[in-house]
Amino acid sequence: MLIEHVSANGILGDLKTTLDAISGTGITSTISGNGIHLYRATPFGVTSPEKQLMTVTTTEANNIADLPRVCRHGYVVRIVNSGEDMDDYYLKFYAEGVTDTEDNPLSQPATYARSGTTLTVTLANHGYSNGDQVILDVTSGNGSDGYYTIANVQTNTFTVTDASSGTTSGTVTCHPVRFGEGVWEECAEPGITTTFDNTTMPLKLTRVLPGTFAINGGSAQSYANGAFQFGYPEWGKRDVGDDLTNGEPSFVGHRIQKMIFFRNRIALLSEENIILSRVNDFYNFWVKLRWLFLTLTLLIYNLVQHIRRDCLML
Hints:
Elements: H1 8-21, E1 28-32, E2 35-39, E3 60-61, E4 70-72, E5 76-79, E6 89-95, E7 108-115, E8 118-122, E9 133-138, E10 146-149, E11 157-161, E12 168-176, E13 179-187, E14 204-208, E15 211-213, E16 221-223, E17 227-231, E18 256-262, E19 265-270, E20 273-276, H2 290-313
Parallel strand pairs: 3-5
Antiparallel strand pairs: 1-2, 4-13, 5-6, 6-13, 7-8, 7-12, 8-11, 9-10, 9-12, 14-17, 15-16, 18-19, 19-20
């Protein structure tokens, strides 16, 4: 009897070999932990005949338990708990060892120019090396979105081979491809507005200590008694949810009529509404953790239902 050893790596390797051998799909496959990551610039569908052996996660999942521990950094999934949109939330994967912060984001905007099939991307001090992989999201011009391997690296430029040819130029967002173990953290729905327009929001007046400096756009001069400086507060961003579960405050699009301070919150009066900031976070008017809020809501609901059942049993 011949016994053949079967492993997850062997199965995944065979799958990748088969997928890579199919021409014309435009799909790039990458083995990631005990799964395989598939990418194409245009939408496509994947099904599994054996759902107990292999699950498919696209942009949606029914449960956090379905999400992998090894994934591509920056991958965003919508968790659909039920048929109601109110209990949906979004999670983003953060791979260990990858620096990706608000002050130092991993994805960067750049410019490009294409001649023939050679697309040259210009991004100052990009830090890439030949052979690195990157997802290009073209925001203007006729360049092609795609999953590319970098070549001809210079300090501020690199090239990739476009799927299309011709002369064009424009802007592009570069998403470095990073895989690894990591964690899923709650985030906002991709593509929605997450900030306020500072020019339409209240200003702050700050007293500056004595010294020589320029304020309010003027030239530098000495202020022996200090000065007062106008500026824009650092208004909080929408970190989680979408327009349904964490919608814009009702003052957006309307005149702010008055501002008061109430129990460690800033309160804005607009139209017939009073909008309160977070406690001790005066410039933030967004929900902090949609998932935590949802969990507490369900916990309270289940507790109430349990109490009702006990009361009925009495």
